[in-house]
Amino acid sequence: MIRLASLLALSLVLAAAPPAGAAPDGQMTWATHISLAPTWFDPAETPGIATPFLVLFALHDGLVKPLPGNPMAPSLAESWSASRDGLAYDFVLRPGVKFHNGEPVTAEDVKFSFERYRGAASKLLRERVSIVEVVDAHRVRFKLKEPWPDFMTYYGNLTTGAGWVVPKKYLEKVGDEGFKKAPIGAGPYRFVSFNPGIELVLEAHEQYWRKVPSVKRLVIKAVPDEATRLAMLKRGEADVIYLLQGELAEEVKRTPSLTLKPTPIVSTHWLVFLDQWDPKSPWADRRVRLAANHAMNRQAVNEALTLGFSRITWSIIPASFDFYWQPPAYAFDPARAKQLLAEAGYPNGFDAGDLWCDAATATMSEALISYLQAVGIRVKLRPLERAAFFKSYQEKKLKNLLYSLSGAFGNAATRLEVFTATGGPYVYGSYPDIDGLFREQAAELDRKRREATLHRIQQLMYEKAMYAPVWELGFIHAHGPRVAESGLGLIPGWSFSAPYEDVRLKGK
């Protein structure tokens, strides 16, 4: 067996342990730009986006997960190993770890959690994993049907929630709906209360294996209005606020008691032409899709809304991901956009219907719409609350245009599996050549050949103008004067505060 777990990560964990007798104290409050959904309390339902992990990092724990200094750190599993033939992965559980109700975390819980997982990539995981064996109470073995180089990318990263563990006995007792109402996990914070649309209250789990949390109580408030979030920060009603744009972000910079925290993350944003596979739709014409790409001044929107902190990448895949291919830029060229529309038979433009978006991205979407309308692509903005937006997106209920985003971890293949290849949860249509190449790369063990295949897929996406990429978001957050450690940016590429056991108030 080839030992994969890092000894360095273990030493970092031990070094971070608090002094004996340190007890959690105080309350820290977050004001979020989205409403929290009970479905995000259950790792089994993670939908291929980053947002649920905002909650999961507090309530739950995975066998392996990103931690500061290690993008794939041993967590509930103190170590793991792979067989030489790549057909088996063994995980050794950390001794003495308990769920919030005092029950031990066992191999049975790991097996149960994997088998009930139904979120992003669940079909792919079921196709690839032949069996999960409980070797003993503290050891579990995953047997694959064939070698799969991406197993740990899907299982040990924030690509899916399949490796996050829930208590089997409790869940079988209360059922799925009961679990969402009173979730129990093995994370650094336990559930206290949830007022839908208003706030989630969590309390420190002092027996957490990694370290005793510093802050006693966390309160996460849903505050969709950006100006209200900033006002709360100024009044001391919130300690950390998410998503500031434009003038409000500039206002934080001018306020000595507040700290602006631009956080580079692996969240790409792009427009999806949902109807491009409908021959009756204007979006079926590649020239129309190209016109939309040339119509938008992405950098101007970046400077206005995210103070230039976003990175224009021209791809739905983050530049830091393995197997990323850098596409050529689309020039901002309104004249070229109008010419392409005329060539496609729309010299006076056309009514493009609705542009659907997550309400938190409404300002960004509106800015892009102004450029589309300037060349004759007339669009109506239709924002939805985030959980409803992604539910409708996944259920294929939306039409016309959509502002898509994802901050899930992974590599180029995992992002393509969710958003581009046939069968993906957010895929409204695909192309045979792309699907064929995607199947080919999934079974390829030679890294160079696999990279070439994934690069070719991305080239085809660009040539077909499947999407209108916007940027890799520079997420702008802020915190107030009471905060010693906000948790923002501790895990490279991660969108929100984490790990929660590391956040601290001054004087604590």
Write the layout of secondary structure elements.
Elements: E1 2-3, H1 7-15, E2 27-32, H2 53-59, E3 61-62, E4 64-67, E5 70-74, E6 77-82, E7 88-93, H3 107-116, H4 122-128, E8 129-136, E9 139-144, H5 151-155, E10 164-165, H6 168-181, E11 189-195, E12 199-204, E13 217-222, H7 226-235, E14 240-241, H8 246-253, E15 259-273, H9 286-295, H10 298-306, H11 334-343, E16 350-358, H12 362-374, E17 377-384, H13 386-394, E18 401-406, H14 412-419, H15 432-442, H16 447-464, E19 467-479, E20 483-485, E21 504-505
Parallel strand pairs: 2-13, 2-14, 16-17, 16-18
Antiparallel strand pairs: 1-6, 3-10, 4-5, 6-7, 7-9, 8-9, 11-12, 12-13, 14-19, 15-18, 15-19, 20-21
Task: Please tell me about this protein's structure.
31% of the residues lie in helices and 24% in strands. With 508 residues, it is of the alpha+beta class. It has two domains: 2-221 and 480-505, D-Maltodextrin-Binding Protein, domain 2 (3-Layer(aba) Sandwich), CATH 3.40.190; 266-473, Dipeptide-binding Protein, domain 3. The strands form five sheets. The chain has a ten-stranded mixed β-sheet with strand order 11-12-13-2-14-19-15-18-16-17, with helices on both faces. Strands 1-6-7-9-8 form a five-stranded antiparallel β-sheet. Strand 6 (77-82) and strand 7 (88-93) form a beta hairpin. Residues 1-21 have low confidence and may be disordered.
